[in-house]
Specification:
Blueprint (H helix, E strand, L loop, with lengths): L4 E4 L3 E6 L10 H7 L3 E6 L15 H15 L5 E5 L1 H12 L7 E4 L10 H12 L8 H11 L3 H8 L2 E5 L2 E4 L3 H7 L17 E6 L10 H7 L3 E6 L6 H4 L1 H13 L3
Parallel strand pairs: 2-3, 2-4, 4-5, 5-8, 8-9
Antiparallel strand pairs: 1-3, 6-7
Helix pairs in contact: 2-3, 5-6
Amino acid sequence: MKLFFRSFGKGAPFLILHGLFGISDNWVTLGRRFGESYRVCIPDLRNHGQSPHSARFDFPSLQEDILELIDDEFREPVYLMGHSLGGRVAVNLALLHPERIPKLVIVDISLRKYRPVAEHHQLLSAMQELQLDRVHTRAEAETQLQVWIPDGKIRQFISKNLYWRERGKLSWRLNLPAICENLPSLFETAAVTGRYTRPALFIRGGNSDYIRPSDLPQIQKQFPGSTVVTVEGASHWVHADRPGEFFRMVSAFLAGDQ
């Protein structure tokens, strides 16, 4: 599948993968900063953003899409960073094709099986319940979504998936049916075995439980060259909560200073 992507800068290729319900636009500000040193590529995953929709939405298909993008755009090894769902895709790719990824950054996701938490179902319900035929402005959509999503930061994150399908008519860019159908499989244990011995940086939010102390032995086993660092005061969206600290941490790692 040919994915939509945004590109910034010149230099060694650096690929950034967003998380579930995200889009490439979420990473534009950081992407431009990284673009001062690297050729940054930020795709929309399938069924997200401006990339094509498909009923198939699982890790093999997500990984195939990213490999196709790497082959088309770079044809050389790439630095790879992924957040949440994008981080799980990045983990699998690194284990399957370590020769193609000289350095790996994983943002607030581990290798264990997760349970779809109430928040994921709540966000999906909010998007499905939004009466788009009665919404004519983004402000009206925000007002409706506030009933299900009281957190303003998360509501803004979800609202970025709305676009003007035609004059006065908003639609979701997300393929909601495919995401709902396949959601349980996205929380399974990382299915790929093996080891990635190259440098890897796992970044966890201090206020998040997506990477727990009990996860560290498995991370160290499959990623023996890894370092796990905590950004205190940050939630699951580490890069959004602490962008300056996050940028400096990743930049130092990629430059070989960490």
